[in-house]
């Protein structure tokens, strides 16, 4: 009689031929497109940009218009009317930008978590030419806490670059007459030399934005600044 298989034999691994016919465990490379879209749908602005760098397939998915809002892409025209009193999303680059004021210049620095770990001027990022808010606005009133807001306009949709350019220009511009005379006495200088930057006193650091809210007329957005660091 042939010997019956031992317990050791029954526990031995299957031959290579049997393994060759077994189904391989699923990998991300075999995921259907629907699964990838669900995964990408969970990512924010930075996450989508990182995913787009992984492979051409993901980049192709992210090019779909369904991701335009999260990426503040400018291929979508701004709406003629916004929802009154609604809060808009502020672009991550604009939210990450702060200013240090030296003389009449406003030096804008931003940290977007780049691979080099360094901070750059906001204008070095390609994102500076994306919409400043979502939905995009064509009229913006920027409130920087000095009792006077300044306008930013662009009928094609306001970009991050435009907001920062106007911000720097505002601080270097002449203050209104009431402010100018009051500050001239404090700084012992002629009123026509008083700029809005002098209204900051010893506060010289921009600390970001509190909110962007659609005003009642539904055509303009008020962008309100946070306070300042000294």
From TrEMBL:
Domain F-box as annotated: residue spans: 25-75
InterPro entries assigned to the protein according to its UniProt record, in alphabetical order: F-box-like_dom_sf, F-box_dom
Organism: Rhodotorula graminis (strain WP1)
Region described as Disordered: 1-24
SUPFAM superfamilies for this protein: F-box domain
Pfam families: F-box (PF00646)
Protein name: F-box domain-containing protein
